């Protein structure tokens, strides 16, 4: 699936907005390491609904890198390695695919609350699927990739100038068609996960 013009236009506007101020920022980099719960929405259409094709919820590790252009405006790159996603058909596990879901977001950080640093963000996710035909013994497969928007809210609670605790929730648009040998495209699985996460932050 190609990146949509609408998604790229939105990301371009957000990135443009992030560059409006050029004042130097002390310790402009932040790295967060989180444990993330993938709660799939599993919206279904057509034959995907008839056969009750779903992804199983799971917990994954995540690392993200942020750069602060100003004390309020930052970009965040969300990274992980390809994650196993178990696929159920009719309530029974029938295969495992892999998903690599990096995201790029622009954030606004609120800085007048002492050690509490809440933020909101929006951006674009690009998910790459591998082992795509590892469903029903190779009889079914998913698309190669998915592109969608991401929204987030979260906060950092800073213990000192460098170390902090982070909590974050994202909503990510991810969808894929399900294809069956001999039948073709039988419908769409709208994964659209809600991803609550907690972790540690280090700013430098």
What this model shows, in words?
With 204 residues, this protein is mainly beta. It has one domain: Beta Barrel (Porin). The strands form two sheets. It has an eight-stranded antiparallel beta barrel. The chain has a four-stranded antiparallel β-sheet with strand order 2-14-13-10. The longest helix has 14 residues.
Per-chain topology:
Layout: H1 5-18, E1 29-38, E2 43-44, H2 46-50, E3 53-55, E4 58-68, E5 73-79, E6 83-89, E7 92-100, E8 103-109, E9 116-130, E10 140-142, E11 145-158, E12 163-172, E13 175-180, E14 184-190, E15 194-203
Antiparallel strand pairs: 1-4, 1-15, 2-14, 3-6, 4-5, 5-8, 6-7, 7-9, 8-9, 9-11, 10-13, 11-12, 12-15, 13-14
Order of helices and strands: HEEHEEEEEEEEEEEEE
Gyration radius, to the nearest Å?
Answer: 19 Å
CATH class reads Mainly Beta
- Report how far apart the termini are: 37 Å
By secondary-structure content and strand pairing, the structural class works out as mainly beta
The CATH topology label is Porin
Total domain count: 1
CATH architecture: Beta Barrel
Strand content is over 45%
Low-pLDDT runs: none
Number of strand segments: 15
- Helix coverage percent: under 10%
Sketch the major β-sheet.
8 strands, antiparallel, barrel
Question: Based on CA inertia axes, which overall geometry fits?
Answer: elongated
Adjacency order of strands in the biggest sheet? 1-4-5-8-9-11-12-15
Count of DSSP-assigned helices: 2
Mean pLDDT, all residues: 92
């Amino acid at each position: 699936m190609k990146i949509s013009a609408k998604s790229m236009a939105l990301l371009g506007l957000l990135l443009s907005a992030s560059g409006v101020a050029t004042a130097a920022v002390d310790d402009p980099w932040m790295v967060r390491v989180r444990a993330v719960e993938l709660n799939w929405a599993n919206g279904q259409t057509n034959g995907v609904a008839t056969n009750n094709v779903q992804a199983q919820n799971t917990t994954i590790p995540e690392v993200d890198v942020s750069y602060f252009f100003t004390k309020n405006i930052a970009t965040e790159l969300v990274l992980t390695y390809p994650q196993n996603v178990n696929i159920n058909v009719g309530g029974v596990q029938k295969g495992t695919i892999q998903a690599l879901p990096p995201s790029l977001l622009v954030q606004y950080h609120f800085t007048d609350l002492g050690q509490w640093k809440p933020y909101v963000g929006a951006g674009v996710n690009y998910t790459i699927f591998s082992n795509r035909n590892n469903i029903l013994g190779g009889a079914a497969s998913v698309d190669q990739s998915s592109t969608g928007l991401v929204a987030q809210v979260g906060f950092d609670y800073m213990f000192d100038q460098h170390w902090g605790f982070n909590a974050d929730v994202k909503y990510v648009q991810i969808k894929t068609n399900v294809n069956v040998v001999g039948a073709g495209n039988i419908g769409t699985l709208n994964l659209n996960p809600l991803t609550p996460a907690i972790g540690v932050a280090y700013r430098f």
